[in-house]
What we know:
This protein is an all-alpha fold. The protein has 17 helices and no strands.
Amino acid sequence: MNTQELQLKNTDSFIFKTALFAIAATTVLGSTIIAPSLPALQEHFSDVENIAFLSKLILTLPALFIMIFSPVSGFMLDRFGRLKLIYPSMIIWSISGTSGFFLDNLYLLLVSRAIFGVATAFLMTGVSVLLSDYYTGIKREKALSLQGFFMAFGGAIFLILGGYLSNLDWRYPFLAYLLGIVILIFAFFMLFEPANHRNIDSNNTSSNTKFCFMKFIPVYLLGIFCMAMFYIAPTQLPFFISHTLGLKSSYVGISMAVASVSMAIFSLFYSRLRSYLDIFRIYFLALFLIGTSFTIVGVFHNYTTVLISFVLMGAGLGIMMVNNSSWLFKLAKDNQRAKAYGFLAASLFMGQFISPFITQPVVEYFGLNSMFCIFGGVVYMVALVFLFAKKHL
Length: 393
């Protein structure tokens, strides 16, 4: 058995999958871990003009740069290979993320978040496409479910940690990004460059000219909409819990951790769910759950119902994220997966970036509580489109 065969055999081992999915988990850890710190951060920089808006950009600005650089990363990953770009990106991710602990200038903090976003673009696209290189068929479906589980469950742990650290000081959650160095060392000894992407320069010209962007448009549009709606939670929930409910920021971390655990559990059942429902019924189910979660928060103003709503939101997002990736990889040719996923990552983070631009005017005009009800209704309407239009798409 040669070296490549031994490596492929090891892809089914638990330790190998842990190394692979730990990198994937960092992309979720990226912004949400600092969400509980937003109210305290806003108070610290209260003398800065437009701080109510800029404080939310601390959370969402990386999404803009992920949106811009994810397609670039897709083309570069297809050209130069996966790990040559993933490893240095992990170093930049850790350094730029941790810098938030030391910086006391809001605008420098925003610059560090922009650099952080560029690194995340390469990590998110790279690890997802690496997964599609290592696994095929049913194994890929199961691997995507496991990836969703690791991303969500790992995120839940650090969200709770972020919530409690933010009670001590708004800077402390930024230290969690040092975990990237530990993951990098682990991954360096476990992962390998797939053989079919070690010598790929000769295929680049034909791959680039044959890439058809239009056939992926439905997946990309869904990614934009769904992430714009989901990111209502980390950008607006901290203020709902601290101002409307009068609770500490640690409750924000717990709430979002509940959503992450729910996301983890339901993503594991995607392959089984897929055997009963088609792509569009799954989208209907996921959107219905997310719409219901918003409506509950808007109508019932207590912490118990917040937790219930986040169980539903996590379930919907967990199903939808795996559904997006699965559909995309089925549409994409082998030599186009990185390019195709690069645009999907851009779409997802475009949704994150535009979320406060959509929600903040609604909050200022109608109020925070009404905002949840309004967007709950919007998500319901989109869900109904999938229910009735599925046979024609």
